[in-house]
Amino acid sequence: MVGQFRVVVVGGGFAGLTTALALAHKRSSVSVVLVEPQEHFLFTPLLYELLSGELQTWQVAPKLDHLLVGCGVAWLQDRVTSINRQTRCLTTGSGRELSFDRLVLACGGVLQSFGVPGVADHAVGFRTMADLRRLQHLVHRLQTRPHPLQRLAVVGAGASGVELACKLADLLAGKAVVELIEQGDKILAGSREFNRQQALAALQQRDVRLRCRSRVQVVAADHLTLLVQDQTETLPCAGVIWTAGLAMAPPPLLPAALVGPQGRLVCLADLRLAGEEAIFAAGDVAAVPDQSQQPLPATAQVAMQQAPVLARNILASLDGKSLQDFHWNDLGEMLSLGRGHAAITAKGLTMAGPTAAKLREATYMLRMPGAGHRLVAAVGWLGEHLRP
Ligand SMILES: Cc1cc2nc3c(=O)[nH]c(=O)nc-3n(C[C@H](O)[C@H](O)[C@H](O)COP(=O)(O)OP(=O)(O)OC[C@H]3O[C@@H](n4cnc5c(N)ncnc54)[C@H](O)[C@@H]3O)c2cc1C
């Protein structure tokens, strides 16, 4: 039986890594191959604390070879470039061909520029370790070579933009004005009201300049062009961080798969791709319907909850058993609002301030993938916080 079936997981983020670990833990008769080009897993909700130096790289971006040691998952450091659904074979960037009995597409999302000119050339994203390094470099330049009235613009006032603007304002401590630019009429359109009010107060305390109803038209090397109430404005700025959207770029499938809004792959509630027996998807790339047939949000919370159901369904499908539907349990929302400050709305509980910040970090330490890393990260975090 050993190695009779091969399950290939594409992408070692929240959905893919957690699914690969769950599969390997459940059944030794399935060989699990994880294809992921990056060296590390990235716990994105703590990327702000990595930027500010409140947490370390080993805690937030642990190396995959450490996470996978002794777990029974084979890691191929490569990128999947195409998938043939008929032959059940995929191709990678280095020219390898890999056959599979079951495939998991968990390749996440990428920056969405909405076709705005200049985003690719002049804006910094905030999704990857490469983005983080570019932003650290920019912050360092602004901190060490300040010019009067210099500005940093964060585009998009969703959770990432708001959290990042607060952290940047704390890091820059008055050396640059942080502008938060939003085309809608309010920040955090999808958030809980308590968190939105806390976020507004945090932005105000830090003198972040909030510009709602402002649409970015062009990003240039040293300025932005904005459309505000039918008027064009030019906003000089030393750097632009683009958090405004999410696009999908899964490897091409042959024949093509059904794609929904935002380019997400249309899935059934049991996480199979629509019209597929052998291919599953999870995380941001998967448009999985909720009870009212709306796609579930693209969050780490959803991705991590999908993993155990997905692992069970893959094994059930190999055994010819029936699959179960995924139901998301909304655990609430936690926002980082600057150094040592956070807001939480979860299951009827609301909380803000330094205690909320500690609770948020502790919760995330306990959600780290891999039992070994979870233990080391949690003990390391406790050690730092209990130090007199
Ligand atoms: C700054 C930030 C903060 C966030 N905060 C929160 C939060 O507080 N709470 C929350 O719930 N969510 C949060 N999110 C959203 C969360 O990060 C995503 O929903 C989550 O990462 C989705 O998991 P995933 O597995 O689908 O994708 P990812 O975690 O993005 O992983 C996808 C992986 O696939 C790999 N990959 C891509 N293409 C290929 C390919 N062709 N071949 C092989 N591998 C490939 C990538 O390298 C990547 O490692 C945040 C996101 C950001 C950017």
TrEMBL record:
Similarity comment: Belongs to the NADH dehydrogenase family.
GO BP terms in the entry: aerobic electron transport chain
Cofactor: FAD
Protein keywords: FAD, Flavoprotein, Oxidoreductase
GO MF annotation, one: NAD(P)H dehydrogenase (quinone) activity
InterPro entries: FAD/NAD-bd_sf, FAD/NAD-binding_dom, NADH-Q_oxidoreductase
Entry's transmembrane regions: none
Domain FAD/NAD(P)-binding: 5-307
Protein name: NADH dehydrogenase
Pfam families: Pyr_redox_2 (PF07992)
